[in-house]
Amino acid sequence: MNKLFQTSKKKINVAILLACLLFLPSMAKAYTINSVSGNLTYCDTMTKGIFIIWWDNDFNYSATADLMLDSMLAYRNTCLNELGMQDPLNAQNGFYCNIYIHTPGNPLDFFSTNFPSWGNGVGDDGNGYPFMTLPNFVLDANYAGGRWRNLAHETFHIFQTHGMWDITPGIYLTDDGGWFVEATANWFSYMRYPNDQHSFIESEILVRTPHVPLWLGWANLPFYYPNNWQRQVHQYALSTYLYYLTNNAGISDSSLVSVFYSGTSLTPQEYMYDQIGGPALRNHFMDCAAHMTNGFDFILPTQFAAAQNEWNTYAEPLDDNQFIQTYFNSGSGGWFQPTDSLTTNAWAFNTYKLLNTNTETYTFEINGDGTGTYGDNSYFQGKVLVQNSITGASFHDVVMSNNFQGSLALSLTPNDTAAYFIIASMPEICVDSNPTFQLFPYQMRISEGTTGILETGISSVPKFEIARYNLLGQKIEKNIGGLQFIVFSDGNIKKVFIQE
Ligand SMILES: [Zn+2]
What we know:
This protein is α+β, with helices and mostly antiparallel strands. The protein contains 14 helices and 17 strands. The protein has 3 domains: 43-314, Orthogonal Bundle (Neutral Protease, domain 2); 326-457, Jelly Rolls (Sandwich), CATH 2.60.120.380; 458-500, no CATH class.
């Protein structure tokens, strides 16, 4: 009895010692207040770990702050211990990281009176230290943006700061790198709340404006683009692509965000391209495009429905570029080239839809230009998504014979109700400093039967001219004026303009 008691006492002592050892680092680390905007006369505060939350003492946000701090410390734990990120510089220097709850429009509120331009976000306090401002309504349980999703997003920004402000210049060296800051903050939020109905809420824009360059964000939004919601939220929507990479393509969470503390001068997209490798990343991008086209089959159906509802509520309907052409029980009637405003940019895609009720074999072909509009080498891949009313979706790679030409023949039955021909442009470039975004033009063709397959293999037979076609795919004579496509025996196609 006595012995047993002693043993368990010893165990308890060991347990207490272990607990002390485990908590020692955080207990030993004391933080002091260093705030540009707070005022202890007018404000109440609450601290936990590295964070201090401030609010005007005319209001009572203590219960809210208590809940917030627990969540923020949990986010911090993930950032530091699972994602390899670092504390913000204020915490590293022994100061609390400041979070301010303000009450916009209320004259009683110390913060809204002194800092009327504050919104919802993270900024630099002038000392290189980040601080967060949150209007009281984003902390409401009924906040449409989701109080926890919003808090996770903004807290992730806190843990990006020391990396992107002090260590890794590549993120902001060009305007084409900034998209990753918002995309990963949203990605983190959606990773934390993957079953929330409003996670992935911006997703639909990725299939409605799929032709814009991957790195389109606020900073590089061109003057010649329509100024609408779907073009402005692109950098947020890309969180869905990042979620696909980490949840469906085997990219680890920590490698996705490792750029922040890498010290690289590369843009995030180039860093990712180097880390994952061109062939693998291109396959992931192509696969993601196909799965997004298949009703975003990697998120919940309720989330897909919510994202479509978001599109219907906020999008400019005329700027919907989901399907370049839609065909009914027929091919494209010859070679087709989209207009410049619809043509694929870098790391972008176009989709053609074929609705089918017949038993028919179709051949899908890509014939890309060798270079983009500013001379960079093109790179295309294609995939056909077939939706079958009985067996569901299947995905079929277009067989590429070089970097810009390929074909695929598929036999459809009446149960194959739709085929989506997705053409992705994925050149080996990661920034665009041209006067306008570089386009990567191509022609495509969907033919009934297999006879039209573009033979693009290297031939030992000297090439000769087979036929000429106009824009409509009609066979024409040499002397007919206008744009002609000359098909050679080696499968190459040359575009010429004949003056009459
Ligand atoms: Zn943000």
